[in-house]
Design a protein that fits this description.
- The strands form 2 sheets. A 3-stranded antiparallel sheet has the order 1-3-2.
- It is of the alpha+beta class.
- Helix 3 crosses helix 4.
- It is built from 4 helices and 6 strands.
- The mean pLDDT is about 80.
Length: about 120
């Protein structure tokens, strides 16, 4: 059972990774720490936009940052990051919850017993 506090934390985590630029950032950081400028170059966006995305992910608890002179280097937090397996880019673990970023484009099957039936109107 999930309580309201856990639900709020999970919603923030989902929001932090539910954006295409941030998924690209996660992908690039699976290879190791990178500084803001390098991430901006890899993703193809201005540094100021990259800083915003990194801030959102840091606030959600996904990233660590380390200042190296004038550069800020970001990495996936070691306590939540698992490099994954053949099917996953990575698995992020938050307490008892896990988010897996899949390599395989095939969707995970959803049991039919959990999918609500749609009411179809006649003639549509």
């Amino acid at each position: 059972m999930i309580d309201a506090v856990d639900a709020k934390k999970m919603a923030a985590l989902f929001a932090a990774v539910a954006e295409p630029t941030r998924v690209l950032v996660l992908h690039h950081l699976t290879g190791g720490p990178l500084h803001v400028g390098r991430l901006a170059d890899l993703v193809g966006i201005p540094i100021v936009n990259m800083s915003h995305h990194l801030g959102v992910m840091r606030q959600a608890g996904i990233l660590d940052d380390d200042k190296k002179g004038r550069r800020v280097v970001y990495s996936l937090r070691k306590d939540i990051f698992d490099p994954g397996d053949d099917d996953h880019y990575c698995i992020l673990t938050f307490g008892k919850y896990r988010i897996g970023l899949r390599r395989n484009p095939t969707p995970i099957p959803v049991p039919t017993s959990t999918v609500p039936k749609r009411n179809k109107k006649a003639g549509t």
